[in-house]
Design brief:
InterPro entries: Acyl_CoA_acyltransferase. This protein has 289 residues and is of the alpha+beta class. The protein is built from eight helices and twelve strands. The protein has two domains: 4-19 and 97-258, 3-Layer(aba) Sandwich (Aminopeptidase); 21-91 and 265-286, no CATH class. Helix 5 links the parallel strand 10 (196-204) and strand 11 (233-238).
């Protein structure tokens, strides 16, 4: 099977733009997000309407900057500078590579190293430079992956294609894909802002799992971030304590859970509701067990 229009380049030659916080805020506005400016930073409404956090979550604010961004918000959170950790009333449990500059094969567990070698034999990892492959095969893959993981509601085809268009409107998204015998086996995406690489979403077809595609894609994205000398942190999401297999995977890949100090607040009723009915989400929002 041929790759549509050959809109790919080898992962070793992957490249994309590095953003500033302001540039990311402008992009999020164009994408339809509600973004406001407060305390010298840009804040985005995320999750339920009325909850805000900086568009660049790891921007590290001072206590004076990390205040309620609008009187109409029912909640907010912002990470604090290391010097201001005493002012924190919670944490955000990020998952990150502890030493990105030296991250290599030896950073993985021995079992994960074997799986990476298998992936490298079976999978061609590329950067997508256009939407053709995702438009042709991506929606079916995402439906399959979300049916298996059930971590969010699968998108309609129309909504999915809008997401795909977003990837290629600018040059700041990096989408790495695994090609197996000419077919899309999975992909992940991410971007970099002010020295921090954010791994955003990842989807793997069930039939492709035996190739250890997930291991290869995460490793290659980390290597790409290493080559961008301005990147000092690779954040691979937030700690999902309710998903032990995912946590074990990230541990094997050399990631650690790092509770970054934050300042946060919520309306009392919202706090009680979320903590009671969505305790894992509450933990990721506040660090409170």
């Amino acid at each position: 099977m041929l790759i549509p229009n050959q809109q790919v380049r080898d992962a070793s030659a992957a490249t994309f733009a590095v953003l500033t916080e302001r540039e990311l805020a402008e992009i999020r506005c164009k994408e339809g997000a509600r973004v406001i400016q407060h305390g010298g930073h840009y804040w985005e409404q995320t999750g339920a309407p009325g909850f805000f956090q900086p568009v660049h979550l790891l921007a590290r604010l001072t206590p004076e900057e990390a205040t309620r961004p609008t009187p109409w918000s029912w909640g907010y959170r912002a990470t604090l500078t290391p010097k201001a950790s005493d002012a924190a009333n919670g944490t955000v449990p990020i998952v990150r590579i502890p030493d990105l500059a030296n991250y290599d094969l030896n950073s993985l567990s021995s079992n994960r190293r074997s799986k990476l070698r298998k992936c490298q034999r079976l999978v061609r990892i590329v950067q997508l430079t256009g939407p053709a492959l995702l438009e042709e095969q991506g929606h079916e893959l995402v439906i399959d992956a979300l049916s298996r993981t059930q971590h969010k509601k699968p998108p309609s085809r129309e909504r999915y294609l809008e997401q795909v268009k977003k990837y290629f409107r600018g040059n700041h998204w990096c989408v790495l894909a695994g090609i197996i015998d000419g077919k899309l086996g999975g992909y992940l995406d991410g971007y970099v802002v002010d020295g921090v690489a954010y791994g955003f979403s990842a989807y793997y077809a069930t039939w492709a799992l035996p190739t250890n595609l997930s291991t290869g894609l995460v490793f290659e994205f980390a290597q790409l971030c290493r080559r961008l000398q301005c990147v000092h942190t690779f954040m691979g999401g937030l700690h999902s304590r309710e998903a032990p297999q995912l946590s074990q995977f990230k541990d094997d890949m050399g990631f650690v859970v790092d509770p970054v100090p934050i300042k946060w607040d919520m309306a009392p009723l919202a706090r009680t509701f979320i903590r009671r009915h969505r305790p894992h989400a509450y933990y990721r929002l506040t660090g409170v067990q």
